[in-house]
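Here is a complete protein record:
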Amino acid sequence: MSRFPRCLFAITLYAVIPGLLLAQSTTATILGTVTDSSGAVILNARITITEERTNVTRTAATNAEGLYTVPYLPAGAYSVEIANAGFKTFLRPHVDVDVASSVRVDATLTPGAASETVRVTEETPLLQTDRGDINRTISAKQVQELPVPNRSFQALVGLLPGVTPPAQTFTSLEDPQRTSFFNANGQGAGANNTQVDGVDDNNPVLGLTIYIPQAEIVREVNVSTSNYNAEFGRAGGAVVNVVTKGGTNEVHGSLFEFNRNAALKARNFFNTVPQAKPAFNRNQFGAAIGGPIRKNKTFFFGAFQGALERQASTQITSVPVDAWRQGNLNGVPNLLLYDPSTGNPDGTGRTLFPNNVIPASRIIGVASKLNQYFPEPNLPGLINNYVTNVPYSYDGYNYDGRVDHTFSERNQLFVKYNYSRYAIAQAAVLGHTIGEGTVGNDRTHTASLGYTRQWSPTFLMEVRAGYNRYGTNVNGDNVNDPLAQT
């Protein structure tokens, strides 16, 4: 039996001056410069940032240089409203903000009444001039709709420049989440850092990912491969930030099922007729729903996913023929079988068993008990004479829940929890009794909390705390052990 429970607890605290800040790992920043039509900067212009799906609002004001910065914004679609006495109100709706991005919205105010609004609907995209890191964002649509193995976002990381194709190196018995490892810009896989909602998500002993969010709850995946902020600490390769979905003012939900089965699979080279075709059936199904608990204030999002897999693999091995089980090895070419009870201790002087036959009285109890459990050969010859389809089963269940709450414009909180459980069984080519089959029962618990507090226009604090627990219990699946009665 092997059992590896792991508990990780981390708290991260940031106290920052917004004018000097770029976006943190799970959030983003909107910033810009406000001027009048002559090009002069405008002091104390009122900036109102509103998330269009939740109607949660943040405000700021321009400084003496006409600059404003609104940090710690969750990824989403925002409207930016800028107003000042004696000028028409500037409105820029549908500003898409990705994780770990700094989006610049500059405004030129024109003289007029504040009740008049100048609505800017399009703006020519510019190069990213407010950040020095190299990063790419994988959207929720890509994660959910692209045909990737197990619907895991990790498979998409390999599409980014400088990243090798992800590959799984652990068995599903010890890693039921099925971590995909990759190298970024020549760095080893251990140099990467994966975070979910700003909380470390790495097993420090095995190096695998503790919790891989199901596709339905992924809001965005941001991958930084160079020049990222010092907050990421130990990372030398890539920093993978996964942000999960929260609820909105409207109720949204989904149901899904994906199926793969043997009817659409070809036989492999060793699986020839009349050998039965290996079984394969994989169902991945679930549901997700999110909406308001209290409009404009409190929101929820919950999801469930199940993955049931039944398959078999064709394996070839060698088993003893009937004569061997009786001690008769006369049919083995070029074999000289000596009686170990004769001759000298150094092996000299020993005599042969007549006709290479071991007397029944000389076959010890362990061998006599094991022989009856070997399957009969189903292929000709003395070696590689047994072929069979070896079954494998996988049952995985994931439960996710998240609540976001806005106490006030200056205080926001989110809490998220995931529980996952898995049951995996890998049978053996020689069967349950004498084979080397294994079974695994795994559990993961992950929880995260994020709190943002704006103490003043120039002082803002974010606290993130996380808890991860990963436990695996792997055992042999032998039943009715024949040696226990020896």
Summary: Residues 365-371 form the longest helix (7 residues). The mean pLDDT is 85. The helical segments are 140-145, 154-157, 322-325, 365-371, 431-434. The longest strand covers residues 386-408.
